[in-house]
């Protein structure tokens, strides 16, 4: 009798040890995979912090050789291009997301989903080239607008997908309750369903923004970049990512500094966006 | 309608109801045996047999209490409906009828024990009390069988059989009066016999009531308080 | 003389080729509580969803035959107008999560763009919440979101929301199935009181509830209306053997 008892106790002890070891492995793996990220952030911070000052943020880049200069036009450019691409992508993405969440069986929905999946997989540089052919060429020149269109195409799949997933999670009874009150379908979607799923939709939007904020390749053939400060979207425009590309590959040391500064700015913007996304999720999350 | 169908799976309520039915039949058999024993005791003036009947009455009463309790439990726990509900309601009334019938058998037993030594057995013949007793017993047995088989046709036959009991009962008064005229010293015996005949009339009534309850639960037809001819028609 | 508020004649409903409701004929009189009963898949939910035309929202859903509400053909009416006359409460309480309790009650008006001044709104909110036996519990927290109430309270809020439109008929689709016994009892009491003003059809799986609350019962089986009668009759002496089998619990 005593033997079997201690047998069982031994087994339990052995399993507890295994549990601890397993947990240990998981924690170690997590730390190991997070470390590179922390190193990168730390490194960029260290390199870029010295470059950031008021002049950096408010001045235009100086010609080669001259000291000083800033990235003000690139900052404005990034924000403007992003804004226009949001204006294009968000309404279209949400509407398509609504459609896909409602229609699960129709042929159109099937092909639409297929198209979205394919779009998600297209390399951003290829999108840039396509927009070059379709918009830059016919327009006769580079423009921020074409850059926005390219970025919008990259944003679309994630906006569509997160909208679709969010709305699919909402209980069917919510829609039915509204319809049973005599509310027409379109109003039900716009006034009940979408507002209820708003936090999920917004999260998707913010995440897609933070994805494209640093895109460089598509902008190479579309917005192209410019040394001037401009707010005309039909003209070429600079952006932080383009500046990093140009300056980092140049032979000039002070331009390298600017590139680090611009990198840090970008990281900061992404960080802020992610924090906003988390706040939106927790504050606006709707309970059922 | 029947309580059970051949292809049906039994629910817990069905099982309880079948148990209850068996209990009622057991009590019924006991009461029938009481009546038959008392009948024997009366025919043979057997005081010992009569005492047996009186003692056994306790068991009949115990049965009544048990069946009442079981009905109460089923109602509380299962909230039966339709035919199940009607069955329980019928059983409650049949229970009461059986207990009264048991009382009557005991009463006849007591009469046999207390009978005066000079009892004139001619009275048994001229009043046809034994014949009446036989018919009354048959009625009770018929309704018991009808209850077991859920046979409402058999139950209805009981109303006709009651006619004989009525006939004997009606004539009894005249017959006994004549006897007393011719045998003035035997008044006590005559009164005893008359009382027994009245008791047997009530046994017939109890059997009819039980038949009505059976028809009620099986067909949801209420025959209570209907005039005799209508009962036979329904 | 009772008047029939709903007349159903030779009514059938289909999902594609599946014949869900077969030739239903029924008269529903005013101010009655009808229990709609039957085993799973018998068509009882489909039946009430046909009355307010929610059935046709499912793809491939079709109907045939006639349903008249106060003499008007339901299938020729504007569905939006119909649903203001026939209110529905669902199995899972579903107050709108983005709206306050106050707004939830008058959601039908808000969402349909019907303009009301503050006084009218206040009146409708209070009346509806009183009728739904919820006023005393929420009158000081009307601005809070509807989803912070308990299950039973949420369901009463949904009832208030349906009542605020002043419907003639109320359809309850297993409205207490998801609630605890105390909330269920409160709502049953409520239905009893509402009977005086409205006609109520309730689908329920709970036979005891049907027996307690309704005064008329309709029994559906495999898409057919087997029996429709006073509740007392159905539970003491139903006319059809299938009905009796069902209420005695003999359906596998």
Task: Annotate the secondary structure layout.
The complex is a heterotrimer of chains A (288), B (234) and C (252).
Chain A: H1 2-49, H2 54-58, H3 72-102, H4 107-121, H5 124-139, H6 144-169, H7 172-180, H8 185-196, H9 198-212, H10 217-220, H11 240-248, H12 253-284
Helix pairs in contact in A: 1-12, 3-6, 3-9, 3-11, 4-6, 5-6, 6-9, 7-8, 9-12, 11-12
Chain B: H1 12-44, H2 47-78, H3 82-114, H4 122-127, H5 129-149, H6 152-182, H7 187-219, H8 228-233
Chain C: E1 4-15, E2 18-29, E3 33-37, H1 44-51, E4 61-69, E5 72-73, H2 79-85, E6 86-89, H3 101-105, H4 107-111, H5 118-131, H6 135-138, H7 151-163, E7 169-173, H8 181-194, E8 199-203, H9 207-213, E9 216-221, E10 224-230, H10 231-236, H11 241-247
Parallel strand pairs in C: 3-8, 3-9, 6-7, 7-8
Antiparallel strand pairs in C: 1-2, 1-4, 4-5, 9-10
Helix pairs in contact in C: 5-7, 7-8
Question: What would you note in describing this structure?
Answer:
The complex is a heterotrimer of chains A (about 290), B (about 230) and C (about 250). Chain A has one domain (about 55-285): MetI-like (MetI-like fold, Orthogonal Bundle), CATH 1.10.3720.10. In chain A, helix 6 (about 145-170) packs antiparallel against helix 9. Chain A is an all-alpha fold. Helices cover about 75% and strands about 0% of the residues of chain A. The mean pLDDT of chain A is about 90. Chain A has twelve helices and no strands. The longest helix of chain B is centred in the N-terminal third of the chain and has 33 residues, at about 10-45. Chain B is about 85% helix and about 0% strand. Chain B is an all-alpha fold. In chain C, the strands form two sheets. Chain C has a six-stranded mixed beta sheet with strand order 6-7-8-3-9-10, sandwiched between helices.
Which tags fit this structure?
heterotrimer; A: mainly alpha; MetI-like fold; 0% strand; B: mainly alpha; 83% helix; elongated
């Amino acid at each position: 009798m005593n033997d079997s008892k201690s047998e069982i106790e031994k087994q339990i002890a052995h399993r507890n040890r295994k549990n601890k070891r397993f947990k240990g492995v998981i924690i170690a793996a997590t730390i190991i995979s997070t470390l590179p990220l922390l190193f990168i952030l730390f490194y960029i911070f260290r390199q870029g912090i010295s470059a950031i000052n008021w002049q950096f943020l408010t001045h235009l880049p100086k010609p080669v050789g001259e000291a000083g200069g800033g990235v003000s036009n690139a900052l404005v450019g990034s924000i403007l291009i992003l804004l226009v691409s949001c204006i294009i992508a968000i309404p279209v993405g949400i509407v398509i997301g609504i459609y896909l969440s409602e229609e699960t069986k129709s042929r159109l929905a099937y092909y639409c989903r297929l198209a979205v999946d394919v779009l998600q997989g297209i390399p951003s540089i290829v999108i840039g080239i396509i927009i070059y052919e379709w918009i830059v060429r016919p327009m006769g020149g580079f423009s921020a607008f074409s850059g926005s269109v390219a970025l919008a195409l990259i944003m679309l799949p994630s906006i569509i997908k997160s909208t679709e997933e969010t709305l699919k999670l909402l209980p069917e009874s919510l829609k039915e309750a509204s319809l049973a009150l005599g509310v027409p379908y379109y109003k039900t979607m716009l006034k009940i369903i979408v507002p209820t799923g708003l936090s999920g939709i917004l999260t998707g939007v913010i995440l897609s923004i933070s994805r494209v904020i640093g895109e460089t390749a598509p902008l190479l053939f579309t917005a192209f970049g410019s040394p001037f400060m401009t707010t005309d979207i039909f003209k070429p425009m600079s952006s932080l990512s383009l500046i990093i590309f140009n300056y980092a590959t140049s032979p000039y040391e002070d331009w390298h500094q600017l590139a680090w500064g611009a990198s840090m700015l970008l990281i900061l913007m992404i960080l802020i966006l992610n924090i906003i996304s988390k706040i939106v999720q927790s504050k606006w999350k709707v309970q059922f | 309608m029947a309580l059970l169908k051949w292809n049906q799976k039994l629910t817990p309520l069905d099982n309880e109801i079948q148990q209850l039915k068996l209990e009622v039949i057991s009590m019924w058999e006991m009461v029938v045996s009481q009546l038959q024993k008392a009948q024997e005791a009366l025919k043979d003036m057997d005081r010992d047999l009569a005492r047996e009947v009186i003692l056994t009455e306790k068991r009949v009463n115990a049965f009544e209490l048990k069946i009442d309790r079981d009905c109460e439990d089923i109602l509380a726990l299962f909230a039966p409906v339709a035919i199940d509900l009607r069955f329980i309601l019928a059983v409650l009334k049949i229970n009461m009828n059986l207990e009264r019938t048991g009382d009557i058998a005991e009463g006849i037993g007591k009469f046999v024990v207390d009978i005066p030594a000079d009892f004139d057995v001619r009275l048994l013949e001229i009043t046809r009390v034994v014949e009446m007793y036989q018919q009354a017993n048959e009625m009770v047995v018929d309704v018991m069988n009808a209850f077991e088989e859920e046979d409402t046709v058999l139950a209805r036959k009981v109303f006709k059989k009651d006619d004989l009991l009525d006939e004997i009962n009606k004539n009894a008064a005249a017959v006994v009066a004549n006897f007393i005229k011719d045998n003035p010293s035997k008044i006590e015996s005559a009164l005893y016999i008359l009382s027994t005949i009245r008791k047997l009339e009530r046994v017939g009534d109890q059997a009819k009531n039980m038949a009505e309850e059976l028809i009620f639960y099986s067909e949801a037809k209420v025959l209570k308080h209907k005039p005799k001819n209508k009962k036979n028609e329904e | 003389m009772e008047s029939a508020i709903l007349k159903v004649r030779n009514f059938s409903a289909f999902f594609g080729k599946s014949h869900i409701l077969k030739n239903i004929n029924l008269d529903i009189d005013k101010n009655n509580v009808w229990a709609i009963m039957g085993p799973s898949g018998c068509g009882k939910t489909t039946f009430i969803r046909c009355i307010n035309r929610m059935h046709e929202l499912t793809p491939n859903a079709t109907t045939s035959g006639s349903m008249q509400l106060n003499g008007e053909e339901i299938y020729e009416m504007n569905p939006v107008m119909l649903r203001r006359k026939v209110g529905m409460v669902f199995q899972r309480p579903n107050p709108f999560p983005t709206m306050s309790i106050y707004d939830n009650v008058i959601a039908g008006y808000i969402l349909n763009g019907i303009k009301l001044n503050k006084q009218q709104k206040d009146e409708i909110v209070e009346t509806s919440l009183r009728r739904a036996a919820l006023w005393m519990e929420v009158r000081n927290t009307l601005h809070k979101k509807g989803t912070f109430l308990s299950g039973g309270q949420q369901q009463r809020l949904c009832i208030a929301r349906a009542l605020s439109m002043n419907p003639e008929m109320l359809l309850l689709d297993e409205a207490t199935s998801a609630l605890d016994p105390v909330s269920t009892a409160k709502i049953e009491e409520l239905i009893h009181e509402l009977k005086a003003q409205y006609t109520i059809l309730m689908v329920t799986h709970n036979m005891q509830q049907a027996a307690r609350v309704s005064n008329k019962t309709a029994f559906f089986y495999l898409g057919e209306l087997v029996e429709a009668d006073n509740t007392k009759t159905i539970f003491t002496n139903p006319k059809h053997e299938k009905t009796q089998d069902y209420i005695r619990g003999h359906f596998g």
